């Protein structure tokens, strides 16, 4: 069951300093994002805006082949939270392998990042000509001795590190035919 945004949804900061979304009908969504990583204050109380709704539906559409509807809603709401409230990030591309083909992603696109013979699945939540902010849709992964990338963690990477999952899917389809 997909949740449908309405004018009752409200962003606020929870007592534990996590960004929360009141969905009405005694339902709360708790994001993994702490106040110290966000551009909002502890007194935050804002409606889920028209822009938030547009992002939510865009992310839901892109996630249509992944997981259950509950997992898609969770990923889409976390994507909106990062796009709307996350502090600007500096690129941390050195954790990921450069790609031969430069890929300019679209907002909400599912992409891959290669790290030590493994590919992480990410969703793009902010784009620019040179770098993109993504959230991880993969299981938690240690990137280095001190950097852990958890599910729904946000990271900014240069676009020369991104792998289009559509291209990989097309290559796999060709291999199956051939």
TrEMBL record:
> Has the keyword Phosphoprotein been applied to this entry?
no
Q: State its location(s).
A: Cytoplasm
Q: For this UniProt record, give its keywords in alphabetical order, as a comma-separated list.
A: Cell cycle, Cell division, Cytoplasm, Septation
Q: Its GO CC terms?
A: cytoplasm
- GO BP terms, alphabetized: division septum assembly
Keyword Protein biosynthesis included in the entry's annotation: no
Where does this protein chiefly localize?
cytoplasm
Record-stated family: Belongs to the ZapC family.
Report the function annotation for this chain.
Contributes to the efficiency of the cell division process by stabilizing the polymeric form of the cell division protein FtsZ. Acts by promoting interactions between FtsZ protofilaments and suppressing the GTPase activity of FtsZ.
Q: What is this protein called?
A: Cell division protein ZapC
Give the organism the record lists: Oceanisphaera profunda
């Amino acid at each position: 069951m997909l949740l449908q945004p309405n004018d009752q949804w409200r962003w606020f900061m929870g007592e534990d300093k996590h960004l929360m979304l009141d969905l009405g009908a005694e339902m709360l969504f708790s994001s993994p994002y702490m106040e110290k990583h966000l551009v909002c204050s502890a007194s935050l109380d804002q409606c889920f805006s028209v822009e938030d709704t547009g992002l939510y539906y865009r992310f839901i559409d892109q996630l249509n082949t992944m997981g259950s509807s509950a997992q898609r809603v969770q990923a889409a709401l976390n994507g909106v939270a990062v796009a709307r409230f996350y502090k600007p990030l500096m690129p941390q591309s050195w954790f990921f392998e450069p790609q031969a083909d430069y890929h300019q992603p679209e907002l909400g696109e599912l992409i891959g990042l290669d790290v030590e013979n493994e590919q992480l699945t990410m969703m793009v939540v902010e784009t620019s000509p040179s770098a993109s902010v993504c959230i991880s849709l993969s299981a938690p992964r240690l990137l280095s001795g001190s950097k852990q990338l958890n599910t729904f963690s946000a990271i900014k990477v240069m676009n020369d590190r991104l792998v289009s999952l559509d291209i990989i899917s097309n290559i796999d389809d060709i291999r199956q035919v051939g």
